[in-house]
Write a structure and sequence with these properties.
By secondary structure, the chain is mainly beta. The protein contains 1 helix and 5 strands, in the order E-E-H-E-E-E. The longest helix has 5 residues.
């Protein structure tokens, strides 16, 4: 597995940040696929004991497999 540094809160952004002075947002965090997948275009995700693989396709899409 790639040894990228851990993802920090500062790496996450909301898709539609709330207006200045607002304290809540319904938008989920957003992160660049390049930051997640790194140069290999591959990320392994452990979720509830199962390992999933997220990979970039040659046509620019993403595939998540178990």
């Amino acid at each position: 597995m790639s040894s990228l540094p851990p993802i920090q809160t500062a790496d996450l952004q909301t898709a539609n940040p709330p207006p200045t002075g607002s304290t809540t947002s319904d938008s989920p965090p957003e992160i660049s696929s390049l930051r997640l997948l790194g140069g290999q275009g591959l990320l392994r995700i452990e979720h509830r004991g199962a390992v999933y693989t997220l990979r970039a396709t040659s046509k620019g899409g993403l595939i998540l497999t178990k």
